[in-house]
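Incident log entry.

Two folding requests arrived from the same account within the same minute. Monitoring flagged them as a possible duplicate submission, but the sequences differ. Recording both here for audit purposes.

Request one:
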Amino acid sequence: MNDDKSDVMGASLVLVPDRSREVRAALKRSLTVVGVFGAVFGGLALYKRATRVRLPEGVVSIVAPVIWPETAEAILRILEPLGDDEVTLLLHTNGGCISSCIQIADALRKFRKSTAVVPYMALSGGTLIALNAKTLYMGRNASLSAVDPIIGGRRGKNLPESGKYATDRATAKEYEAAIRTYLRSTLEARLPGAGEAKIQAAMDVFMGKDAPHEWPIRPAEIGGLGIQVGVADSAWAKYVDSLRDQQDRQLGY
């Protein structure tokens, strides 16, 4: 195996700070984030591939507080040479830009065999990515969350119809409709042959009908919806821990 291939087959994303005025301004202008922590980590925007933490062959990781367009671009560049045979995605994220998360989820859909491993959390947009893998493994304390849109730091469906938030509410409706359609197609693929009642029950959970956006959806609840969830080996959590430690070192923590 040559060095170039090994870099691709065990590839990770490591967070680095970007302090450019242009990037900060672009992030500030961005309204639509699927993930409640988007505003907190808005200044940490760019991601670079790194291979200091060596992952098993065929494993690609996204260990990032927020998934931005730069993240999606880097991941798609890693996935493209793999063809459509098999991939394992190691996920640890609070969510991110919805278009970026959908791009990664779409790429997973195209693989004949795809596995998402969530040792701790894959919230919001990360949940959409995890659900679009054909196989899902989660740590015993791991969680997913609702995927409905967050607009300007507020839950879209709770924005008022009039006043200063009227424009944001209109935008939220557009995104919510698109996310609902995408989520339904995702769940229909994960629950083949399921009736409308079963699909709707899963839709309600993942659209956060009766819970806050960031409320944890645990493996037992996901399994109760009919979505098979395997138990992730504890070694996966150690990979995430190592990648997070590497990020902290790069950021000078």
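Request two (distinct sequence, not a duplicate):
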Amino acid sequence: MVNTRKAIIFIVAFSLAIKVIYVLCQVVYDRKVTAGDTGFGEIISTFKKADAGWYAKIFTEGYPTFTQRDSIGLRNGGNSVQSAWAFFPGYPYAVKATAILIKTGFNTAALIFELLFSTAFFILLFIFLQRQFSPQVSLTIVLTVMCFPFNFFYSMFYSEAIFMSLMIGALLLIEKKNFIGAAFCLGLMVMVRSTGLVMLVVVFFYSMHADGKRGFMQIAKSFLTDGKQWTKIILLFSFPFIAFGSWCFYQWRITGFWNAFSIAQEGWYHTIRFPLFSLFRGGDWQNQFLSWYTVFFLLVGVLLFKHLLLYEKIWVIAGLLFPLCFGSVISMPRYISIILPLFYYFGKKIYASGYRNAIISLLTAAQLVSFYFWLKGDPISF
């Protein structure tokens, strides 16, 4: 039997241990491939790859002042124009606040920040899951999230850890009817990633679920007959929309375009299209693999759909289809990593199998295989 206190201690220890394993993998890779840096630099290089460089650039230089649209983002064959405007300010400026507080630079601040928030997310998720599952099942689900292939993103200098900490924190506060606290979390959440706006829809349906409204008709009726619902929704969502509106205004003041973040996506060859048309668009093996990876989760989502709660259904639909609307399967493992209801299913099955330790070990090994592509900077891991 697992009690809550022991489970949380185990989660903290496991979260730290897996980060040590990542660093050891970097050490082995450097020695065999690049004979790279040593000491603290080698530790940092484990976590600071791909988009982490953009966050470091925003941390150091802020957002660039552009007056020409093509300077923000442009598709131009192999010479596309990319800019920092593609990234929301929540994560790099939170790291900057940490750096100012402890008087250090990006690398140290980002490392401390990720150690805290990745572990905080796993703990918050465990606490949240206990509303629905036993401590044993909840712990298994958390371990599944931690060890699943590609889910190392939660430990990197990326925004996943703080994003999901804020979202799960908001859901827990909603259960306690602390709508002002939840609104504060949601306001910060929408400043971390563009998907924050989509997740607000999930939060809305969760707030209805927590209030006992489990269907569309119940929800609609509650807004027609209960004025308190409007008060709650205004409390919850005013701050997130004010925060996002302020971000758009800032972009307009600096660049002349309120949606500079969207324009910048063109530099990454993102084009709006029907979601399923984004699959199998490239002939390279990375595109094919990521397409099949996405199809697997789409099929799991379809098979589970009728068994999911309403807010979980919205979570799965939004989490899978929204990123596909931008015409690429690159980074789909990152987007899939935050679709937690799918991992609930995997975790429950793993616990019920009676071979939890063996399966978690196999998942960890599979994640380290996927981590190799992160180490070598392959597009499959972006």
